[in-house]
Amino acid sequence: MTTGTPAPYTTRTAVDESDLAACFQVRKEVFVGEQNVPEEIEYDSYDADALHVIAVAADGAPLGTGRLLHGVGVAAKIGGDLTVGSLGRLAVTSRARGLGVGAALVRAIEEEARGLGLAAVDLHAQTHALGFYERLGYVAYGPEFPDAGIPHRAMRRSL
Fold this sequence. Notes:
It is a single chain. The chain has about 160 residues and is α+β, with helices and mostly antiparallel strands. About 25% of the residues lie in helices and about 35% in strands. The chain has four helices and seven strands, in the order E-H-H-E-E-E-H-E-H-E-E. A seven-stranded mixed β-sheet has the order 1-2-3-4-5-7-6, sandwiched between helices. The longest helix has 18 residues. The protein is globular and about 40 Å long. The two termini are about 25 Å apart. About 30% of the residues are buried.
């Protein structure tokens, strides 16, 4: 970003119910609406304790979201290693794609993970998004697997 030019968006941790509602609306638009993920599997019990981040335009319109799972409550989901967080549900609205929102959200989640003392972040990337995450320093491991009928690969980045 150039100095003196206002950012077209900002990222922050979701702080209240209206932020959470905006996060869920973005996820519904992208995953349920565009990718046909069944709504009943898009939202899960992990949402209650997850750290959610949101990107908003200057006018407050939500542009993207993601979440970080960490701690004992999700240890089994993330391989039992309490030093690893799980980045997930990263979604950017169609009108905001190409603005760097996805990368900014990933970096915001990584900063939160560092603040929590985590050593690495894992994620399950849709295979079409592998290059995006690779450019951000993530490395794929393990075989391809389906999630909600969409091919994915596990990836990790040390912090």
